[in-house]
Amino acid sequence: MKLTLIKTIALGSLLTCSAAAMAGGSDYKLMVIEQATAPQQLEESFNGCALNVKSKNYAEAEAICTKAIELLKVTKGRKLKVRELTSFALSNRGISRIKAKNDTAGLADLYEATQISNNTLVSHNLTLAKEDLSL
Question: Over the range 94-124, which residues count as b (16 or more CB within 10 Å of their CB) and which as e?
Fold first, then answer.
């Protein structure tokens, strides 16, 4: 069931680097890896992070996002793709931290994510977080 839900979410709107975004226009954007474009362990960690954020299991989401970030550090592949996925994972973790009221750590993740890859979705999340926190 959980894997089926993740796959359903992942088939939503496609982005470059085989990732998909979840949420409406004014909400935070959570990125997931499209089915079968990454090693299974990475795909499960990455997508599990987004699923737990959507389910409001923020502590679990943070732990799973951290695991995805660690897996990306040792992932072999095109450097540009790995950098963008790392940026997405940091953005997802940043959202989970902000939702859990750990604003400083969440903003740090979002700033780091934009430094790694200034993707429009990651930039959107940082802008929204600064607005939400009145920065």
Answer: bbbbbbbebeeebbebbbbbbebbebebbbb
Residue 98, domain CATH = 1.25.40.10
For the chain, how many structural domains are there in total? Answer: 1
> In terms of DSSP bridges, do strands 19-22 and 13-14 run parallel, antiparallel, or are they unpaired?
antiparallel
pLDDT in tens, 61-95: 999 999 999 999 998 888 888 999 999 999 999 99
Containing structural domain, residue 128: 2-132
> Which pLDDT score, from 0 to 100, does residue 46 have?
87
* Residue type for position 111: Y
Is the four-CA dihedral 75, 34, 66, 69 of positive or negative sign? Answer: positive
Q: Which residues contact 4 (CB under 8 A, 6 or more apart)?
A: none
Whole-number Å distance between alpha carbons of 54 and 17: 22
DSSP code, position 13? E
